[in-house]
Amino acid sequence: MPAAMIHETPLTPPAAVPSQLLAGLDALYHEPDWLAAHRREALAAYHDTPLPDRVTHLWRYTDPAVFARDGDDPLPTPPIRGSVREFPPVLTEALRTDSLAAGIYVRDGLVWKIALEESLVAQGVLVMDLHAAALEHSDLVRKHLGSLVGPAFGKYEAYANAAWTGGLLIYVPRGVEIAKPIHIVTAQPGGGTVRAGRLLVIVESQAAITLIDEYGEGTNGDGAPVHTNMIVEMVIGPAGRVQYAPIQNWNKQTVSYSTQRARLDTDARLETVLTAIGAHTSKVDCGALLAGKGAESNMFGLGIADGRQHYDHHTVHHHLAGNTRSDLHFKVALRDRADSVYTGLIRIEDKAAYCEAYQENRNLILSPHARAETIPELEILNNEVRCTHGATVGKIDPQEIFYLESRGIDRTEAVRLIVAGFVGPIVDRLPAPAQGRLRDVIVRRLEGD
Amino acid sequence: MTNDKPTIRPQLHVREDYQARYGFADPEEYFLKAPKGINHEVVEMISQLKKEPDWMREFRHAALDAFFAKPMPKWGDTELLNSIDFADIHYYLKSTAGGSEKSWDDVPDNIKRTFDRLGIPEAEQRFLGGVSAQYESEVVYHSLREDLTKQGIIFLDMDTGLREHEELVRRYFATVIPYADNKFAALNSAVWSGGSFIYVPPGTDVKIPLQAYFRINARNMGQFERTLIIADKGSRVHYIEGCTAPTYSSDSLHSAVVELIAHEGAYIRYTTIQNWSNNVFNLVTKRAVAHQDATVEWVDANLGSKLTMKFPCVYLMGERAKAEILSVAFAGDGQHQDAGAKVIHAAPNTTSRITSKSISRGGGRASYRGMVKVYPSATNCKVSVECDALLLNENSRSDTYPTMEIAAEDVRVEHEARVSKIAEEQIFYLQSRGLSDDEARMLIVNGFFEPFVKELPMEYAVEMNRLIELEMEGSVG
Q1: In sequence order, which residues have a C-beta less than 8 Å from that of residue B193 and are 6 or more positions away?
Q2: Chain A residues 118-177 within an 8 A CB cutoff of chain B
Q3: Which residues does residue A297 pair with via DSSP β-bridges, in sequence order?
Q4: Quick one: DSSP state of residue A222?
Q5: Which end is more exposed in chain B, N or C (fewer Cβ atoms within 10 Å of the end residue's Cβ)?
Q6: Checking DSSP bridges between strand A126-129 and strand B222-223, what pairing results, if any?
């Protein structure tokens, strides 16, 4: 018997089309003054910030210009008015089998449809359109929105702060532990569109959630590139626990820019399982600030690229408080002419004593023309510390193939087994509803399907 | 039982000792001193004075234009870098009327006293094949053992090298580091003076190390030596350089360019013990080319200076060429050691190994900054990068910035880094064996640097151990 769900079809999409980036956005959404001012400030920062220099950190391997398609003042494509508000099949199926606490579909820059377990509503859990939340829970949103990724973060973060539409607020009150996952699917089907999205997650003390944040489902490229720019902010209170699984599965015309930051209070825990399988060009900056004693962040990453896909992933574990712990495993498998850049920073501040931080990046090169860059970085300002990092780049060891062949397994199957063994430990970390489905997708991709 | 106890020598105070051994300044007596500041007149003056061929004079002027045109680096310790006042530096200073003397007795007394205090002639007699001593801008003493001269080995100061072997110099000079390579290489190319020129004929094995000693004595001095080492096919050579300067409150600039060419099957080892005083900016470009089956080893120790930025590099251009870089840094109060290594794999079956060890203490900052690049054609390469850092107290800092760009499929690249403090268990264990806290820490630090020290010739290893001991004194915990 499925749990009772409240279904919402949020906010009417705006009828008018903004003629400039900001003109009208706040009016269309009836946004409070502080938010309109925040957008204006962000737009000014976007204009004032020069295009990143190719010699600066994090921009050495990706051309910054690809993210600014229309030059200086790209318009977000106006939200599309939809008539039928259906969930995509993946959410419909998961809701039917009662395997989600909430399902959310964000499409075309709109929060398309939300389903939330009724019992959670009673406990004060909020899963809602961020435009509406900015009005109804103004103080809460105002306090946290932009607190981790604000307009000063960088040029494209400033853009996303100015231009986001169809954002989401997820709020979990103190002590509420939600066992089943919350699954967000974000789709942007139209070719030639430019959009910025936003996710704000606030988990109060001792609360717990699992969040699947999936991008790309339902897109079918018509050839024209899709531009997307996403900011995710997660504020995790004392002893709060979050499992977060961003899944980037955009179609191969998509140019994706994404910045994710989490702030962990005392004894908070975050497990991030990042999967990247789609997009033409994807740049991701994913980080955790360990701001309270005893906080712990574990990050697992998996990138699979083929064709001419370009990935540029940056991870940050920033230890601001003592007795914090971080661990990171980032694996990349590359075929054809794909290339991947991985830059991982561990920074331990001078006041943060007794920290432990580990980081590992492994790259498997499956074709002669694929290439991998790896830049694991340490900045350690305190000596009461245990910190290591490691990185490897290599192809499949011919001896491993030889061994499997000698056991009667043919070469193709041997390669498949070895690669499955390479990515397996990361896939195993994905929340249950996404795991089986993604395992199939990944295996097909690695077989060159 | 008491015999089992490691002998720890009485410890000296680091600053007092540096002052006494290296930090002293002699009265500035000079034959010619360029006015402060850098311009085409200074460059012209240096070139005229050295009676250089036109191609070198033109090279210097072109390099100066490149220096003016290039912006300061936007990476690294930009705050410290931007504090360099290029207008407040003497770019050329000649202390004597003479050239580089072949007999120690001919070296002017005041300079001789300096090097005597530093122990240079003593070292030469004991274990070196050849010695070059540079004071300010010019090499003041030079000698090579007779048997080595007979083998056709050339070991001269760079200026004499250019005069006596112009064809050889012209063929190789600035081929590894072009003048426009970076801002500081451009500056060196414009005002270079001194340095070593070494040519080792095919198949010749220089069995004993050749050494150069660099000394800055004057205030606000810029030293820009230029070293070029060519090891012809199948030859072997080991070159050692050391450097010190007086401790002044105003800053000096040392910006060298070092080019190594290892022909087919040749072997070059280049060892540096950098012990500048804490008011010297040490911004050095060092690069080697290793052809087929050649091996280049950089053994690079950085103990002194205010800011060092030095990333010895090897281009592996021929099959089976090898690079090995051992980088050791010790950053104390007011010091930033931004050191590391670069290896470019441009040919198949090449191997490289980078080992970095650093200690930060007393607010010092040690950074490892490295780059390994493997080109698509460089198949079956092996790369290993290992960084180890010790932080001795809580306000010190250690950074690791390795970059690995891998464009070939058939490679094995491995990188590892560790940052830690001295484990209390280790101290406790050693104390339980009767060592004092200081002795225990010293023993652990010595063990940490052991892989580096054992690569040095014996006399240098002893000196190195003493330097480490001295740097450690009163600083641990």
Answers
A1: B46, B50, B92, B137, B138, B158, B159, B224, B225, B226
A2: none
A3: A270, A326
A4: -
A5: N
A6: unpaired
Predicted confidence at residue B427, as pLDDT, reads 85
Question: What's the confidence (pLDDT) of residue A218?
Answer: 46
B-chain residues near A338 (CB < 8 A): none
Interchain proximity A373–B414, CB inside 8 Å:
no
Write phi, then psi, for A176 (nearest 5 degrees).
-85, 115
Residue A350 to residue B413, Cβ atoms within 8 A: no
Among B209, B270, B242, residue whose Cα is nearest residue B115: B242
Structure tokens, B320: 């089976």
What pLDDT sits at residue A429?
Answer: 92
β-pair partners for B199? B154, B230
SS3 B345: strand
Contact B406 A363 (CB under 8 A): yes
Q: Taking an 8 Å Cβ-Cβ cutoff, which residues of chain B contact chain A? A: 74-75, 376, 389, 391-421
pLDDT for res B146: 79
Query: Is the CB of A371 less than 8 angstroms away from the CB of B407?
Result: yes
Inter-CA distances, B270 with B198, B211, B259, B296, Å: 12, 10, 11, 8
The token duo for A237 is 């209170």
- Give the pLDDT band (50/70/90) at residue B176: very high
- Residue A25's pLDDT is 66
**DSSP string of B193-212?**
---EEEEE-TT-B--S-EEE
pTM of the model: 0.84
What residue spans of A68-114 are helical by DSSP H? 89-96
- For the ranges A70-79, A319-328, B177-186, B437-446, which has the lowest average pLDDT? A70-79
Q: Which residue of B has its CA nearest to A390?
A: B416
Residues of chain B contacting A374 with CB distance shorter than 8 Å = 403-404, 406, 413, 415
Distances A243 to A199, A201, A297, A329, B475 between C-alpha atoms, Å: 15, 12, 10, 15, 44
Residues B227, B255: contact at Cβ < 8 Å? no
Contacts of A395 in chain B (CB under 8 A): 409-411
**Does the distance separating the beta carbons of B410 and A380 come in below 8 Å?**
no
Q: Among the listed ranges A323-327, B247-251, B305-309, B352-356, which one has the minimum average pLDDT value?
A: B247-251
Whether the CB-CB separation of A261 and A148 falls below 8 Å is answered with yes
CB contact (8 A) between residue B418 and residue A395: no
Domain boundary assignment for chain A: 5-291, 398-425+438-449
Q: Is A399 on the interface with B (CB under 8 A)?
A: no
Are residues A394 and B393, on separate chains, in Cβ contact within 8 Å? no
Give backbone dihedrals phi and psi of A20, rounded to 5 degrees, phi first: -130, 175
Looking at the partner chain, which of B396, B403, B418 has a beta carbon nearest the beta carbon of A383? B396
Q: Which residues of A touch B413 (CB under 8 A)?
A: 374, 391-394
CA neighbor of A310 nearest in space, from A248, A217, A361, A236: A248
pLDDT tens-digit profile of B181-205?
A: 999 999 999 999 989 999 999 999 9
User: Least CB-CB distance to A350: which of B394, B399, B409?
Assistant: B394
C-alpha B135/C-alpha B50 separation (Å) is 16
Terminal-residue alpha carbon distance, chain A = 38
Using the predicted structure, report yes or no on whether residue A16 has a pLDDT greater than 70.
no
Q: For the segment A191-242, what is each residue's pLDDT rounded down to a tens digit?
A: 677 788 999 999 999 999 999 999 985 455 456 678 889 999 999 999 999 9
Structure tokens at B100: 């580089």
**What is the ipTM score, two decimals?**
0.76
Using an 8 Å Cβ cutoff, are A137 and A34 in contact?
no
A375 vs B: CB within 8 A = yes
* H helix or E strand, kind and range, residue B120: helix B120-127
Residue at B353: amino acid letter: R
Question: DSSP 3-state assignment of B47?
Answer: helix
Place of tokens 């330097």: B467
- Compute the radius of gyration of chain B from its Cα atoms: 22
Among B413, B405, B422, B327, which residue's Cα sits nearest to residue B367?
B327
